[in-house]
Amino acid sequence: MTPKGSGVSIVGQNDAEVAYFGSDQNRAGMLRLGNAAGSTMLEAGVGDHGGELLARNTTGQGGALIGNGDNGGFMDMRNGDGKAVASLAVQPNGGGVASVCYASGQVAALMDQGKDESGTVQVFAGANRMAALGGSKTGGLLNLFNMKGKAVFVAGSASDGTGGILSVRSGDGTQVVRASAEPAPEVAVYSNDGQQKRVISAPTPGTAANAPATPAP
Prior knowledge:
The chain is mostly beta strands and about 220 residues long. The protein has a domain at about 115-215: Outer Surface Protein A, domain 3. It is built from no helices and 19 strands. The chain has a 19-stranded antiparallel sheet, with no helix packed on it. A hairpin with a 5-residue loop joins strand 10 and strand 11 (about 120-125).
């Protein structure tokens, strides 16, 4: 019995503790199991937001952590260096988020609930986001980024209709090609500064299909 509470400790060979059941330093319940050498392999207790379970591998670093955070439950899968390389958690909006990380712990891919209750998927190269796939009220949307974080390719369902739209952009994010399906199929090619464009429109009934394109105002 201590001022912090009481517990039962079971000792194996070489006086190494292999099991403990009792109170932790905060007077909450705790269970700890160890291997023959006394290294803790499994630990269950109470954190700031509820119960927690930590399972370690033989190095004492990797394993899995299951617990509760600010918004709900979470789970981390850790490598031999103790870095979380796969995680599941609850977002502030109540939706879920799943992430896969490099060995360093840097996020490599992220999947979560985006706006309008649609899922989003993001892919990273180092700290830079390279691709994003999501949804909107009108349909899907794909963004590809350069290493500066500028979107250089955007495709999806138009926000003002149901047809598809595509935008190709320069390294600084300036649109140089735009194609849309509605209200009539059209492709526009822009100057480097984005101030001038040439438009190719779908032929209308009664006109030649190979009519030359004309500069747009």
